[in-house]
Amino acid sequence: MTTSNNEADRAEAALNDPRAVDILTTEHWSLLSTRTLGYQEMFGRATIFIGILSATIVALAFLAQATDFGRGSLLLALLLFIVALFIGLVTFVRCVEINYEDARWVAGMDRLRRAYVTIIPGLEAHFITMHESDADRRTLGHGSPQRPVNLAKSLTTTSGVVAALNSMLAGALAGDVTALAGGSLYVNAAAAAVLSLVSAVLHVRYAGNFRRTHEPSERSPN
């Protein structure tokens, strides 16, 4: 208890320093810049993935016409699907990580707003953004389990779109493999549907496990 009181006293004394506002403002802009870089990386990776996927579809269309939809088309399609799916998987993993990093920067900016309110309490009425504790924020974001009601919202995110495309690619890959093995149209369609669903579930589980095992901030608030 004494240690906590001493830390609180030091934190309050630091905010009384005339240099505190300048330092806090600099940190605030630093976090904003870092968030922007994260968004740019996420959108850049997603754009590259979609570009590769689009090129794969166009290449397969020309290839199918040239080979009259023969076995050679299926073999080359298999290679293209594997490459596109690999790019999609690493894009999804990185997007999930960027979401986690973004949650940390948002939690950091919330702390800075709390510091501003501590310095000048009258400012609280002018803030429209949150400045609650990290414990409260964990109930809204990382560190809390994924709930079924939030799955629909997750599909509208960049990582959700990438996950959906990956699942479709996985299904196409399964259908291609069964077609090469001599399976019938119904078998190919069933294999594609099953693997697409399995892939979707695995993507959701990965993101959910990541949320449960990572928190926006590693430091506890004072």
What are the defining features of this structure?
222 residues; disordered C terminus; mainly alpha
The gist of it:
The chain has helices spanning 2-15, 20-67, 71-119, 134-138, 148-154, 158-180, 185-213.
Describe this structure in words.
With 222 residues, the chain is mainly α. The protein has one domain. The protein contains seven helices and no strands. Helix 2 runs antiparallel to helix 3, helix 3 runs parallel beside helix 7 and helix 6 packs antiparallel against helix 7. The longest helix is centred in the middle third of the chain and has 49 residues. It is elongated, with a radius of gyration of 24 Å. The C terminus is likely disordered.
Main sheet specs:
none
Judging from the principal axes of the Cα atoms, what is the shape? elongated
The first-to-last residue Cα distance is: 12 Å
Summing up helix and strand content along with how strands pair, one would put the structural category as mainly alpha
Order of H and E elements: HHHHHHH
Strand content: under 5%
**How would you state the average pLDDT, rounded?**
81
* Estimated radius of gyration: 24 Å
Low-pLDDT sequence parts: 217-222
The overall number of domains is 1
Helix count, per DSSP? 7
Q: How much helix is in the residues?
A: over 70%
For the secondary structure, the number of strands is 0
